[in-house]
Fold this sequence. Notes:
The complex is a heterotrimer.
Chain A (H helix, E strand, L loop, with lengths): L20 H10 L1 H7 L15 E6 L4 H13 L3 E6 L4 H4 L3 H9 L5 E6 L4 H8 L3 E7 L5 H19 L10 E5 L6 H12 L3 E5 L15 E3 L2 H5 L4 E4 L5 H4 L6 H8 L14 E3 L12 H4 L6 H20 L17
Parallel strand pairs in A: 1-2, 1-3, 3-4, 5-6, 5-8, 6-7, 8-9
Chain B lengths: L1 E11 L4 E10 L2 E6 L6 E4 L4 E4 L1 E6 L12 H10 L2 E6 L10 H14 L3 E4 L15 H7 L3 E3 L8 H13 L3 E4 L4 H4 L4 E2 L2 H6 L3 E2 L2 H17 L3 E3 L5 H13 L3 E5 L27 H13 L4 E2 L8 H4 L16 H10 L6 H8 L1 H6 L15 E11 L18 E11 L2 E5 L5
Parallel strand pairs in B: 1-4, 1-5, 6-7, 7-8, 9-10, 10-13, 11-12, 13-14, 14-15
Antiparallel strand pairs in B: 1-2, 2-3, 5-16, 16-17, 17-18
Chain C lengths: L16 E4 L1 H18 L6 E6 L3 H16 L5 E4 L6 H4 L22 E9 L3 H13 L4 E9 L11 E5 L6 E6 L1 H4 L3 E6 L9
Parallel strand pairs in C: 2-3, 2-4, 4-5, 5-6
Antiparallel strand pairs in C: 1-8, 7-8
Helix pairs in contact in C: 1-2
Amino acid sequence: MMTAARAWNRKDLIGIEELSRPEIELILETAPQFVAVSARESGIKKVPLLQGRLVVNWFYEPSTRTRTSFELAAKRLSADTLSIAASASSSVKGESLHDTLANIEAMHSDIIVLRHSYAGAPHMLAKRHASHIINAGDGRHEHPTQALLDAYTMLDHVRTLRGDRKATLDGLRVALIGDVAHSRVARSNIWCLTKLGARVVLCGPRTLMPPEIGRMGVDVTYNLHEAIHDADVIYALRIQVERQQSCLFPSLREYIKLFRIDRESLKVAPPHALIMHPGPINRDVELAAEVADSSRSVVLQQVTNGVAVRMAVMHLLANQPGRRSFPAATEERTP
Amino acid sequence: MTIAIINGHVIDPGSGLSARRDILIKGSTITRIGDSLRGNENIDAAGCIVAPGFVDLHVHFREPGNESKETIATGSCAAAHGGFTSVVTMPNTNPPIDDAGTLELVIRRAQETACIRVWPSACATKERAGKEMTEMAELKAVGAVAVTDDGSDISSSWVMRRVLEYADMCGLTFLAHCEDSSLVSDGVMNEGFNSTCLGMPGMPRAMEEIMVERNIRLAAMAGAKIHIQHVTTADSVDIIRRAKARGVRVTCETAPHYFTLTDDAVRSFDTNTKMNPPLREKSDIDAIKEGLADGTIDCIATDHAPHAFTEKDVEFQLAPFGIIGLETALALGISELVRPGVITIERAVELLTSAPANILSIPAGSLREGGPADLVIFDPAAEWVVDPEEFASKSRNTPFTGRNVFGAVRATICGGKMVYKSKDLG
Amino acid sequence: MLSRKNAMPKPPEPSTTIVMHADAMAEVIRRLAQEIVGGNPDVGKLVLLGILRRGRPLADRLALLIKEMTGISPPVGSLATTLYRDDLRAGVGHAQIGLAGTYFDFPIDDRTVVLVDDVLAAGRTIRAAMDEVMDYGRPARIQLACLVDRGGRELPIQPDYLGRTVAAGPREYVSVRLVELDGEDAVLLEPRFDSGEASS
């Protein structure tokens, strides 16, 4: 049974780990109306909920997909957007994170969407600045909006499959396959899915499985068959070729043989199992091209849902009860 | 001109004294320890403990090269505030203390600017590179009290063996920073559940234990003395315990944060919880406390490592390792060890005075008639809240801001001179 | 014991009044349908958009009546207006989630859109409805049909087709009950105990 929270009352969205189930459900229940906005055929794909607000996309790592998703989400809420692509970390560039953010805030920004190569960067900023911070990925730590759009996609399918708009993810069997150790998407998904009652199993090379990860409430196996034979969702994580150089696995060839999701390995999976991937896909490495393009793959729906979920998050953050409608001077806000 | 410290409870671990006594000081020496002594000036230490000035075997005073973080002057002031009258400085300065000229510089600076006694250590290998030995005999003659490459380990076992043999020949103890850096790689915190949740690279316990074991074996083979720095894990304590039982000449130290904080503290991403070796887990804290109680761990050393605010005010993975500790050591010892009954106050004083002094044969850490007037007066029951703005150190990188602690230094006397006096002293 | 001279006058007991019974409502709705037809000679260009929640069942009833009268059944859709409410942007409103959303599967360009709502008060909901409709296309005209006008306007918005005016004070709440949702037809005047609903 869904018992979504009545209202959102956090300044920022930094991670899933600290969220309660009702808070997650509030976001998932707020998203559908934004799916409809983006789906308008003849009408304008815009609503005025963030009119006059400034959303700044501050990305330290290059990312076309996530950045455009956030940008589109902001624009569809009628916000003004600004993109800052910082290619160097603060220490190399000479200007500290705090100084850069203070400069941005001097332009009266409302929401900062931050992607950074190091864990904890959004926490650092959220503590000392009044802006709403959305974590678009901090190092290997968390990528909360990705987990939320993934959960939304799974929920949408479960509800359609069962013909029950009130169905939940409780009991859903989700298999996350691949490089868990380096994946913020995996961590956020583990928190999100376990809080929503799903059963999560991780599978990948032992050398890419973080220590004591079982304590997050998941099962672990190094055998693909075991992981997917009863899975409702098979989620493939990106594998980066550079990991091979750090002696983390011997070759892509062997990785593919053991862990790739392809027609062969899917023979043991249930026919209804969804195929998901956070993108971008290394075709034929972690996911075979034919599987990525098959009808079981909901990768494109993840992208569509991503815009709607991000619209929901921005709306909930910026329009919290008690917040002023027009951007106030930074000093007047309670941090 | 005589000074008498009266009405205090005197603890001198070397002689086993723990009783009400008065102490009479003339010039820079203690002349009498007895009853009903009075001098020209009388300091009332009622309700307080009077102990030998504390001895810290492990501090970084950053001079030469990084004077913006700390200098010998400010560092010694911080030491005095913390009750320390003798400190052993580490040689990983810029340039490192790997030759007589740089060592003489440090010694001269200490004589000119330090308010307490500074006993410098020198590098064991040139530039701390772990390849070529330094001229240890000359360094000893100039005034080094120990050799160490602290900040790094010596990765080649061949070199380490020779360093131990040669140091021993020169009558110098090797202070061992035990770390297998290849295992550590880019780690920034303890490897465990917390590092998994936070997605930050970890430093597994084995990184320390492997080298503790190796370094002890090499020392045993060389018949040399070795002192293990900053012990943090349960298995390290175990390895040292068994080595001592076999008769190996090994001593070791731990720092207050290793018996106070676990890696849960890192979840806040506060860079003042980042140090090398890192904070571990509860089971390690329990083992460290046991080691302090049963004598496996010989002394407490702060590893006082100052860093400027702007250096630490960056992303956790980029911040430099290290925290300050001179001005919170006593309070943490009393709050975490004595009050909960892990050790007695006498043992705590021993861990901070006679034990460290004996490891390097430094003429300090004891109260005796005719001996140097280096002592500390502290109130073990005084409750206070840690506020780094009050610190004498130039730096503020402590994880204990706002912490409620017990045990405050009221006065520190070095060579008969009052080098620190708190406003609460009667 | 208090004497009658010193007794304080008691305030009137709060009570609910039925302003319109089911029969009166049916008559009023029929008249509304007649007026809409009268005001729109080209019935084929009409579309009805009911403002959720109660505007929709009303719009459905109007469509049936219009079909009876003219033989033409105007398309009916629903308008949620939630995403266009100015109180949500100001952080003073409370978004209800899980409600049905805006839905209509016909074009509105060049049509006459008749917005249908149960109670008109401040006018902000109608303004939001107009903003939303304009984002979907360019109707030739927009008209407003309301069952009840309870006054308290905050914007210059007036109904083209009005069932009945019900004078209600600030401490009173006009509510419409419909068989489709509430099991009965009635218009009620109730005391308002909360700090104030979002004005509609």
